[in-house]
Structures are given as C-alpha cells and as structure tokens.
Design a protein that fits this description.
seven-stranded mixed sheet, 128 residues, globular, single chain, mainly beta
Length: 128
C-alpha cells in the first residue's frame, strides 16, 4: 500500500518562504511521477508542479503561477519530494496536496486524474 504524508505547511507572511515535504512509503518511489496540487476554499484543486519525464529524460513542470517562485525536487534515497516556495503571496493560500503515480507513457503530469496516490494535504496560509 502506497502512502503519502505531507508536512511543512503553516502560517507565513507575504514574501516569506516555506518548504513542503512529502514522504512516500510503499511502492517504488524512484519510478513514480510526483506532483503538487493545491486547493483554495471554494475552488477546484489545481496543478502546481510535477516531476516527470520526457522520454527517458527527467523534467519538471510548473503552473504559470508557480514559475520562478516554486521549485520541486526529489530525494530518491529518502523517498521524499519537496516543494520549495519563495516569495509567497496571499493568493498562494490553500491546502497543498502531494500526488504520485507509477510512470507511464503519455502521462499528462498536470492532470489530477493521472495520479493514483494522494496525501492528506497540508495547509499553507499567507497573510498580507
């Protein structure tokens, strides 16, 4: 059974930084595509960033709102994926979810339906 557990959320001020972690147990982490999504109150869950592959080459994917401010990384030795968030804005306030899926051809890394495993979420609140 694959389990994902996020941590690192909290209350910060605009302009601050925060690093989220997602620890994965079960399965073969190194072969998983990993993504971060977020959901603000009253809104749909939206894509933030993902780590996947183009062919055999690893690559990262970012939503426009995350480009230049957020960075996804992974440590296969620790079975953990990270989300470094800098220059946080009040509009970044949301519950952040980690998601994972076994690597597969033609995967749309930005699509929620592609991911098989989800964490419980961690709250990030950015005050102005």
């Amino acid at each position: 059974q694959v389990q994902l557990v996020e941590s690192g959320g909290g209350l910060v001020q605009a302009g601050d930084s925060l690093r989220l972690s997602c620890a994965v147990s079960g399965g073969t982490f190194s072969s998983y595509a990993m993504g971060w999504f977020r959901q603000a109150p009253g809104k749909e869950r939206e894509f933030v960033t993902a780590f996947g592959w183009t062919g055999v080459a690893p690559r990262t994917y970012y939503a426009d709102s995350a480009k230049g401010r957020f960075t996804i990384s992974r440590d296969n030795a620790k079975n953990t994926v990270y989300l470094q968030m800098n220059s946080l804005k009040p509009e970044d306030t949301a519950v952040y979810y980690c998601a994972g899926a076994p690597r597969k051809l033609g995967m749309d890394y930005r699509a929620k339906y592609e991911y098989d495993y989800w964490g419980q979420g961690t709250q990030v609140t950015v005050s102005s």
